[in-house]
Each structure stands twice: as C-alpha cells, then as structure tokens.
Amino acid sequence: MTDLKYWLGFSKLYSIGSIQLGRMLKHFGCIKHCWHATASDLLEIKGVSPAAIEKFQQEKKNIKDLGKLEEEISKREIRAITLQNPEYPEYLKQIYDPPVVLFVKGGLTRCNPEKSLAIVGSRKASHYIKEILRKIIGDLKGTGITIVSGMAIGVDSCAHNASIENELATIAVLGSGFDNIYPRSNKQLFEKIVHDNGAVISEYFPDTQPRPFLFPRRNRIISGLCQGTLVAEAGLNSGALITASLTLEQNRELMCIPGMVTNPNTEGIHKLIKEGAAVVTKAEDILNQLGWSDLDINKDLNNNVKLKLLDIERKIYEILDLEPRSFDDLMSQSKLSADELMSALTSMELNGLITQKPGQNFVKNIN
Predict the structure, then answer these.
(1) CA 20 to 30 Å from 185, out of 29, 65, 267, 288?
(2) CA 334 to CA 109: how far, in whole Å?
(3) Please, which residues have CB within 8 angstroms of residue 121's CB and are 6 or more apart in sequence?
(4) 242-276 pLDDT per residue, tens
(5) For domain 1-75, which architecture applies?
(6) Topology classification of domain 108-298
C-alpha cells in the first residue's frame, strides 16, 4: 500500500485520533492529503479544534522520515492493518473510535471474528476463579470460539493460557508497542500466542512505552473485537469495569461470573449483576447468551461428573451423600476454610450438582 507511511505517521500522533482523522478523510479524500494539510485547510473541518491542529503541526515536525516508519515495521515482521484495509476486523470498525492502525503479530486468520469472546478481570485473580475459567474454557474446546483478552497477569493470562491448552485461538491486545511487552513476565506467553494460537495486536507503534493512560484506551479494542465480554473477579475500581462499560456502549453482551459476597475483589461483579449483566456459571450460559447454542461443547459432566469438577469441588462431592450434611460437618471433613467451602458450594449449587436444604445442610443431586 503506497499510502501506508502516512497511516503509520498518524499512528505516532496523539493529537489526531480516529474520529478526527475520519473527518479529515471525508474532507480531503485520501490519507496523503490529510497528512500534508495546512493549518488553514484543517480549520475548514468541523470538529477539528484549533488546539488539535496546532499540536498536529508540531508533532509532524518530529517525524523526519515517513518512509523509515515502513522500514521499521517490515524488519520487525509486523503487519499494519489500516482502517481502510479490507482485513480490518469488522466488529472493531463499528465502535465509536476504532484504532487508526492495528499492528499485528501472529495470524488473525486463525481467529474467528464471528465467534469471539472477551474475558477480563482482576490482576489479583484468586486460585478459585482461575479454576472456574479453566473449566469454562475447557468446555468450549472444539467450538472454534476465539478468546480475546489483554495479556495482563491474573485473569487475562489465565484466559490466554487456558485457550492455548484447549486449542482455541486467542487474541491478546497490548497497551504498549511490541518492543515493550508488558508485563515482561508474559514474554513467553506472547511468543506462544504469536507462533501457535492466534495473534497479538496493538494500536501503538512498536517503540511505544507502556504508560498508565494507554491501558484504559486499549480496553475498547478488547470489547470491540467481540460479540460479548465475560468479567471474572473485579473490584469496584478495576480496569475490567471500564471494559464492561465499553461493552455496553458498543451494544455488545455483558456477562459475569458471580463470586463470594465477602470477597472485596468481587464487589464490581455484583454491581454489574445488579445492573443487569447476565450471570455465567457454565459454558452453556455463554453460548445461550450470545446466540451460539448451535455449537457443540464438551458434555462429559452427565457421564462422569467428577471429571468436570474443580479440585475443591471434587473433595466436597466425594464427602456429600444423598442424606443432608451440615456446613460445619463438611468444613471439618474437607479441612477447607469457611470462605473456600461456601464459594465451592455456591458454584456447585448454581451448576445443579448439589441442593441446599433448610438449616444450611447440603445433599448431592442425582444425575
């Protein structure tokens, strides 16, 4: 694409975003004319402020050689997909402010744009929620669904790794350029995704450093690529709540995995559920919510329930009988804390594995 260097130039700027660039393209007709427009030309465009125009002219002076930008992309084996490229993801193009350029490593062709699910949540994810996610993603094996997340530690990393383990394509969206993978501890995960299971994308030129204000911006891409977003563990100030809000703004489906009411890291989850987010306790809930119920998922649970239980749940299930067992009795025999036991019992009851009787007694259901 002969005009790629101009798109790359705009990707280096903070003064002109996708919304203002869209107005400029409509006015001038091509990206080259947008780049070379004078301040007086730009003042004719409604919605492009004088302050943005002044900053645009200043920022352009710092880019001495546009052609060198193309060389830098090429030598790093990065693909640059512009807003006008037919390969630009259609769902992402529909959001209010789609990225001007998507920098891609790996293969977007391995991914399913019509069946993509975003999974986001706390960086301080509990062992319990990680097991829940592995279980849900494991049940999605073979469906052809693509899992999208932000490659942060915690829930994001768990979602990507579980996707890889279950041979599902996955897309990681960075809040920095490819030269500055963040967190550094996920460099190996980055390589795995690029070479085997999908793609890593960023709207930022490769040399962009990770800065706090870039990560909330990238969240609109995570939700924008997908038909729905699943939130797993999030406090009231969690970045996952930003993604949840963006999901609703983009008119996509919002879903949550419920958590323990005593856990402050789930306060954001319960807030979203109260506000109308769909509750997810198993893979079928996701498929039904997104209208993908025609997909086949693993249904081993009915044949051998123990195969699909988490380690903690399996321990409880083996203790339970068809006769009611009290909460204190279960805690004594399982050696679990009250919080661990209550969380597992809640999940098992929501999944139809057990029933709670009066007096905080529990029985095993017959499959």
Answers:
(1) 267
(2) 47
(3) 129, 154, 155, 156, 231, 232, 233, 234, 238, 240
(4) 999 999 999 999 999 998 777 888 999 999 999 99
(5) Orthogonal Bundle (1.10)
(6) Rossmann fold (3.40.50)
